[in-house]
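assembly run, all chains below
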Amino acid sequence: MAAPPEPGEPEERKLLGFLDVENTPCARHSILYGSLGSVVAGFGHFLFTSRIRRSCDVGVGGFILVTLGCWFHCRYNYAKQRIQERIAREEIKKKILYEGTHLDPERKHNGSSSN
Amino acid sequence: MAHAAQVGLQDATSPIMEELITFHDHALMIIFLICFLVLYALFLTLTTKLTNTNISDAQEMETVWTILPAIILVLIALPSLRILYMTDEINDPSLTIKSIGHQWYWTYEYTDYGGLIFNSYMLPPLFLEPGDLRLLDVDNRVVLPIEAPIRMMITSQDVLHSWAVPTLGLKTDAVPGRLNQTTFTATRPGVYYGQCSEICGANHSFMPIVLELIPLKIFEMGPVFTL
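ok done. output:
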Protein backbone atom coordinates (compact mmCIF):
# COMPACT_ATOMS: atom_id res chain seq x y z
CA MET A 1 0.00 0.00 0.00
CA ALA A 2 2.99 2.31 0.64
CA ALA A 3 4.85 2.09 -2.69
CA PRO A 4 3.35 3.05 -6.04
CA PRO A 5 2.30 -0.06 -8.00
CA GLU A 6 5.23 -1.75 -9.76
CA PRO A 7 4.69 -3.16 -13.27
CA GLY A 8 3.18 -6.62 -12.87
CA GLU A 9 1.55 -5.78 -9.54
CA PRO A 10 -2.25 -5.24 -9.47
CA GLU A 11 -3.21 -1.59 -9.98
CA GLU A 12 -5.18 0.25 -7.34
CA ARG A 13 -8.88 0.05 -8.04
CA LYS A 14 -10.99 2.06 -5.62
CA LEU A 15 -14.73 1.47 -5.36
CA LEU A 16 -16.65 4.70 -4.70
CA GLY A 17 -13.23 6.38 -4.78
CA PHE A 18 -11.91 5.01 -1.50
CA LEU A 19 -12.19 1.22 -1.09
CA ASP A 20 -9.05 -0.29 -2.63
CA VAL A 21 -10.32 -3.77 -3.56
CA GLU A 22 -7.08 -4.94 -5.15
CA ASN A 23 -4.75 -4.34 -2.21
CA THR A 24 -7.09 -4.88 0.75
CA PRO A 25 -7.13 -8.57 1.77
CA CYS A 26 -10.59 -10.18 1.36
CA ALA A 27 -12.18 -7.04 -0.16
CA ARG A 28 -12.34 -8.22 -3.77
CA HIS A 29 -13.53 -11.67 -2.71
CA SER A 30 -16.31 -10.21 -0.52
CA ILE A 31 -17.49 -7.67 -3.11
CA LEU A 32 -17.64 -10.32 -5.85
CA TYR A 33 -19.60 -12.77 -3.71
CA GLY A 34 -21.82 -9.90 -2.57
CA SER A 35 -22.56 -8.97 -6.18
CA LEU A 36 -23.40 -12.58 -6.96
CA GLY A 37 -25.64 -12.80 -3.91
CA SER A 38 -27.32 -9.56 -4.88
CA VAL A 39 -28.09 -10.79 -8.40
CA VAL A 40 -29.36 -14.16 -7.15
CA ALA A 41 -31.54 -12.64 -4.42
CA GLY A 42 -32.90 -9.82 -6.56
CA PHE A 43 -33.56 -11.90 -9.63
CA GLY A 44 -34.99 -14.77 -7.58
CA HIS A 45 -37.40 -12.38 -5.82
CA PHE A 46 -38.47 -10.93 -9.15
CA LEU A 47 -39.14 -14.38 -10.59
CA PHE A 48 -41.48 -15.17 -7.68
CA THR A 49 -43.21 -11.81 -7.31
CA SER A 50 -42.70 -9.82 -10.56
CA ARG A 51 -42.24 -6.69 -8.44
CA ILE A 52 -39.35 -4.68 -9.85
CA ARG A 53 -38.74 -2.06 -7.16
CA ARG A 54 -39.08 -4.51 -4.29
CA SER A 55 -36.71 -6.93 -6.08
CA CYS A 56 -34.15 -4.12 -6.39
CA ASP A 57 -34.50 -3.50 -2.65
CA VAL A 58 -33.97 -7.21 -1.98
CA GLY A 59 -30.96 -7.15 -4.29
CA VAL A 60 -29.36 -4.26 -2.44
CA GLY A 61 -30.11 -5.88 0.92
CA GLY A 62 -28.66 -9.14 -0.35
CA PHE A 63 -25.52 -7.39 -1.53
CA ILE A 64 -24.95 -5.80 1.87
CA LEU A 65 -25.64 -8.97 3.86
CA VAL A 66 -23.62 -11.32 1.64
CA THR A 67 -20.69 -8.88 1.44
CA LEU A 68 -20.64 -8.45 5.21
CA GLY A 69 -20.92 -12.17 5.82
CA CYS A 70 -18.11 -13.04 3.38
CA TRP A 71 -16.01 -10.21 4.76
CA PHE A 72 -16.19 -11.36 8.38
CA HIS A 73 -15.64 -15.00 7.44
CA CYS A 74 -12.63 -14.20 5.24
CA ARG A 75 -11.09 -11.76 7.76
CA TYR A 76 -11.46 -14.30 10.56
CA ASN A 77 -9.60 -16.93 8.51
CA TYR A 78 -7.01 -14.33 7.45
CA ALA A 79 -6.37 -13.38 11.08
CA LYS A 80 -6.01 -17.06 12.03
CA GLN A 81 -3.55 -17.55 9.15
CA ARG A 82 -1.49 -14.53 10.21
CA ILE A 83 -1.25 -15.84 13.75
CA GLN A 84 -0.10 -19.24 12.47
CA GLU A 85 2.48 -17.56 10.21
CA ARG A 86 3.77 -15.55 13.15
CA ILE A 87 4.08 -18.66 15.32
CA ALA A 88 5.87 -20.53 12.51
CA ARG A 89 8.26 -17.61 11.99
CA GLU A 90 9.08 -17.48 15.71
CA GLU A 91 9.62 -21.25 15.86
CA ILE A 92 11.96 -21.18 12.86
CA LYS A 93 13.93 -18.33 14.43
CA LYS A 94 14.14 -20.21 17.75
CA LYS A 95 15.22 -23.42 15.99
CA ILE A 96 18.03 -21.61 14.17
CA LEU A 97 19.10 -19.88 17.36
CA TYR A 98 19.03 -22.87 19.69
CA GLU A 99 20.02 -25.73 17.35
CA GLY A 100 22.80 -27.79 18.91
CA THR A 101 22.59 -26.06 22.28
CA HIS A 102 21.09 -27.34 25.52
CA LEU A 103 17.99 -25.25 24.81
CA ASP A 104 17.25 -27.09 21.55
CA PRO A 105 13.63 -28.33 21.95
CA GLU A 106 14.26 -31.27 19.58
CA ARG A 107 17.12 -32.44 21.77
CA LYS A 108 14.93 -32.28 24.86
CA HIS A 109 12.17 -34.15 23.03
CA ASN A 110 14.56 -36.88 21.75
CA GLY A 111 16.10 -37.14 25.22
CA SER A 112 12.77 -37.66 26.90
CA SER A 113 11.54 -40.17 24.26
CA SER A 114 14.72 -42.31 24.57
CA ASN A 115 14.22 -42.38 28.40
CA MET B 1 8.13 6.96 3.66
CA ALA B 2 5.10 7.94 1.65
CA HIS B 3 5.28 8.04 -2.16
CA ALA B 4 4.03 11.05 -4.12
CA ALA B 5 0.27 11.66 -3.82
CA GLN B 6 -0.13 8.74 -1.43
CA VAL B 7 -3.48 8.80 0.38
CA GLY B 8 -3.46 5.42 2.15
CA LEU B 9 -1.50 4.21 5.15
CA GLN B 10 2.18 3.31 4.88
CA ASP B 11 3.27 -0.32 5.25
CA ALA B 12 3.48 -1.45 8.86
CA THR B 13 6.78 -1.73 10.71
CA SER B 14 5.35 -2.69 14.07
CA PRO B 15 2.68 -5.15 15.23
CA ILE B 16 0.45 -2.31 16.46
CA MET B 17 0.51 -0.68 13.04
CA GLU B 18 -0.43 -4.00 11.45
CA GLU B 19 -3.45 -4.13 13.77
CA LEU B 20 -4.32 -0.52 12.91
CA ILE B 21 -4.21 -1.29 9.19
CA THR B 22 -6.48 -4.31 9.74
CA PHE B 23 -8.92 -2.15 11.71
CA HIS B 24 -8.77 0.54 9.03
CA ASP B 25 -9.72 -2.03 6.36
CA HIS B 26 -12.57 -3.29 8.54
CA ALA B 27 -13.96 0.20 9.18
CA LEU B 28 -13.58 1.15 5.51
CA MET B 29 -15.62 -1.86 4.38
CA ILE B 30 -18.43 -0.88 6.77
CA ILE B 31 -18.25 2.71 5.54
CA PHE B 32 -18.40 1.52 1.92
CA LEU B 33 -21.56 -0.51 2.58
CA ILE B 34 -23.22 2.39 4.40
CA CYS B 35 -22.33 4.72 1.51
CA PHE B 36 -23.77 2.22 -0.94
CA LEU B 37 -27.00 2.04 1.04
CA VAL B 38 -27.27 5.83 1.29
CA LEU B 39 -26.66 6.24 -2.45
CA TYR B 40 -29.37 3.69 -3.17
CA ALA B 41 -31.78 5.49 -0.81
CA LEU B 42 -30.95 8.76 -2.56
CA PHE B 43 -31.63 7.16 -5.94
CA LEU B 44 -35.01 5.86 -4.70
CA THR B 45 -35.92 9.26 -3.30
CA LEU B 46 -35.14 10.95 -6.60
CA THR B 47 -37.03 8.43 -8.76
CA THR B 48 -40.12 7.64 -6.64
CA LYS B 49 -43.63 8.39 -7.84
CA LEU B 50 -44.97 8.29 -4.26
CA THR B 51 -45.56 11.84 -3.12
CA ASN B 52 -47.84 11.49 -0.08
CA THR B 53 -47.15 14.45 2.15
CA ASN B 54 -49.41 13.30 5.02
CA ILE B 55 -47.32 10.49 6.49
CA SER B 56 -47.28 11.10 10.22
CA ASP B 57 -45.18 8.22 11.54
CA ALA B 58 -43.26 5.15 10.49
CA GLN B 59 -42.61 3.18 13.65
CA GLU B 60 -40.98 0.16 12.03
CA MET B 61 -38.56 2.21 9.96
CA GLU B 62 -37.67 4.37 12.96
CA THR B 63 -36.94 1.26 15.02
CA VAL B 64 -34.70 -0.13 12.29
CA TRP B 65 -32.78 3.08 11.79
CA THR B 66 -32.13 3.34 15.52
CA ILE B 67 -31.07 -0.21 16.24
CA LEU B 68 -29.02 -0.78 13.08
CA PRO B 69 -26.62 2.15 13.62
CA ALA B 70 -26.16 1.02 17.24
CA ILE B 71 -25.15 -2.45 16.01
CA ILE B 72 -22.80 -0.92 13.44
CA LEU B 73 -21.16 1.22 16.10
CA VAL B 74 -20.63 -1.82 18.32
CA LEU B 75 -19.03 -3.66 15.37
CA ILE B 76 -16.62 -0.76 14.94
CA ALA B 77 -16.00 -0.08 18.64
CA LEU B 78 -15.03 -3.61 19.72
CA PRO B 79 -11.91 -3.96 17.52
CA SER B 80 -11.05 -0.34 18.19
CA LEU B 81 -11.05 -0.80 21.96
CA ARG B 82 -9.04 -4.00 21.57
CA ILE B 83 -6.27 -2.11 19.80
CA LEU B 84 -6.48 0.76 22.28
CA TYR B 85 -5.81 -1.57 25.18
CA MET B 86 -3.12 -3.36 23.19
CA THR B 87 -1.17 -0.10 22.89
CA ASP B 88 -1.18 0.18 26.70
CA GLU B 89 0.19 -3.28 27.38
CA ILE B 90 3.13 -3.42 29.75
CA ASN B 91 6.04 -4.94 27.86
CA ASP B 92 9.27 -4.17 29.83
CA PRO B 93 11.20 -2.02 27.35
CA SER B 94 14.89 -2.76 26.70
CA LEU B 95 15.80 0.82 25.92
CA THR B 96 14.48 4.26 26.84
CA ILE B 97 15.04 7.28 24.60
CA LYS B 98 14.00 10.80 25.44
CA SER B 99 12.82 13.05 22.66
CA ILE B 100 12.57 16.78 23.32
CA GLY B 101 10.90 19.11 20.87
CA HIS B 102 12.29 22.56 20.23
CA GLN B 103 11.55 25.29 17.74
CA TRP B 104 12.46 23.81 15.27
CA TYR B 105 14.44 20.65 15.85
CA TRP B 106 14.42 17.55 18.03
CA THR B 107 16.87 16.60 20.76
CA TYR B 108 17.38 12.92 21.54
CA GLU B 109 18.87 11.55 24.74
CA TYR B 110 20.22 8.03 25.11
CA THR B 111 20.84 7.95 28.83
CA ASP B 112 20.46 4.21 29.56
CA TYR B 113 24.02 3.21 28.75
CA GLY B 114 25.86 6.52 28.68
CA GLY B 115 25.11 10.18 28.33
CA LEU B 116 24.59 10.54 24.61
CA ILE B 117 22.60 13.65 23.71
CA PHE B 118 22.33 15.13 20.23
CA ASN B 119 20.18 17.46 18.16
CA SER B 120 18.46 16.46 14.95
CA TYR B 121 18.00 19.27 12.43
CA MET B 122 16.44 19.02 8.99
CA LEU B 123 19.05 19.10 6.23
CA PRO B 124 18.68 22.43 4.40
CA PRO B 125 18.19 22.03 0.62
CA LEU B 126 21.68 23.42 -0.10
CA PHE B 127 23.23 20.66 2.02
CA LEU B 128 21.40 17.74 0.41
CA GLU B 129 23.45 14.99 -1.26
CA PRO B 130 22.10 13.22 -4.39
CA GLY B 131 19.51 10.69 -3.19
CA ASP B 132 18.65 12.61 -0.01
CA LEU B 133 15.00 13.43 0.56
CA ARG B 134 14.06 17.11 0.57
CA LEU B 135 12.33 18.27 3.80
CA LEU B 136 12.69 14.80 5.31
CA ASP B 137 16.36 13.97 5.84
CA VAL B 138 18.16 15.13 8.97
CA ASP B 139 21.75 15.55 10.03
CA ASN B 140 21.58 13.05 12.92
CA ARG B 141 19.15 10.15 12.78
CA VAL B 142 17.75 8.25 15.75
CA VAL B 143 19.43 4.85 15.56
CA LEU B 144 17.50 2.05 17.27
CA PRO B 145 17.48 -1.76 17.32
CA ILE B 146 14.71 -3.86 15.79
CA GLU B 147 12.78 -6.58 17.60
CA ALA B 148 13.34 -4.96 20.98
CA PRO B 149 10.66 -3.05 22.87
CA ILE B 150 11.65 0.62 23.05
CA ARG B 151 10.20 3.31 25.28
CA MET B 152 10.09 6.89 23.98
CA MET B 153 9.67 9.67 26.52
CA ILE B 154 8.51 12.77 24.71
CA THR B 155 8.36 16.33 25.90
CA SER B 156 8.94 19.84 24.69
CA GLN B 157 11.15 22.67 25.75
CA ASP B 158 9.01 25.49 24.38
CA VAL B 159 5.68 25.05 22.56
CA LEU B 160 3.55 22.06 21.61
CA HIS B 161 5.05 19.65 19.10
CA SER B 162 4.13 16.09 18.16
CA TRP B 163 6.50 13.22 17.53
CA ALA B 164 5.03 11.09 14.76
CA VAL B 165 6.28 8.14 12.71
CA PRO B 166 3.38 6.81 10.60
CA THR B 167 4.92 3.48 9.65
CA LEU B 168 5.25 2.54 13.33
CA GLY B 169 1.77 3.80 14.14
CA LEU B 170 3.18 6.42 16.51
CA LYS B 171 2.04 9.93 17.24
CA THR B 172 2.60 11.44 20.65
CA ASP B 173 2.28 15.07 21.62
CA ALA B 174 5.30 16.84 23.02
CA VAL B 175 3.85 19.06 25.73
CA PRO B 176 6.02 21.52 27.68
CA GLY B 177 6.12 20.61 31.35
CA ARG B 178 4.77 17.09 30.73
CA LEU B 179 6.40 13.78 29.91
CA ASN B 180 4.44 11.54 27.55
CA GLN B 181 5.40 7.96 26.99
CA THR B 182 4.98 5.66 24.03
CA THR B 183 6.43 2.21 23.39
CA PHE B 184 6.97 0.29 20.21
CA THR B 185 8.72 -2.74 18.76
CA ALA B 186 9.98 -2.50 15.19
CA THR B 187 9.85 -5.70 13.14
CA ARG B 188 12.08 -4.86 10.20
CA PRO B 189 15.21 -2.77 9.61
CA GLY B 190 15.21 0.37 7.51
CA VAL B 191 15.02 4.13 7.56
CA TYR B 192 11.64 5.55 8.51
CA TYR B 193 10.45 9.11 8.34
CA GLY B 194 7.97 11.22 10.23
CA GLN B 195 7.17 14.89 10.61
CA CYS B 196 6.19 17.17 13.47
CA SER B 197 2.43 16.87 13.81
CA GLU B 198 1.43 19.83 15.97
CA ILE B 199 1.62 23.39 14.68
CA CYS B 200 4.56 25.02 16.40
CA GLY B 201 5.52 28.11 14.47
CA ALA B 202 7.09 29.22 11.23
CA ASN B 203 9.22 26.11 10.66
CA HIS B 204 6.72 23.53 11.86
CA SER B 205 6.99 21.72 8.50
CA PHE B 206 10.78 21.67 8.69
CA MET B 207 11.54 19.56 11.75
CA PRO B 208 11.28 15.96 10.56
CA ILE B 209 11.98 12.77 12.48
CA VAL B 210 14.15 10.03 11.01
CA LEU B 211 14.57 6.63 12.62
CA GLU B 212 17.29 4.27 11.46
CA LEU B 213 16.33 0.79 12.65
CA ILE B 214 19.14 -1.74 12.58
CA PRO B 215 19.59 -5.34 13.77
CA LEU B 216 20.29 -5.69 17.47
CA LYS B 217 23.73 -7.26 16.87
CA ILE B 218 24.88 -4.22 14.93
CA PHE B 219 23.29 -1.83 17.42
CA GLU B 220 25.21 -3.51 20.25
CA MET B 221 28.48 -2.82 18.43
CA GLY B 222 27.76 0.80 19.18
CA PRO B 223 27.31 2.74 15.90
CA VAL B 224 25.05 5.23 17.66
CA PHE B 225 27.73 6.00 20.21
CA THR B 226 30.35 7.00 17.67
CA LEU B 227 28.78 10.42 17.08
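The longest helix of chain A spans residues 52-98.

Chain A has a mean pLDDT of 83.

not gonna interpret more than that til we talk
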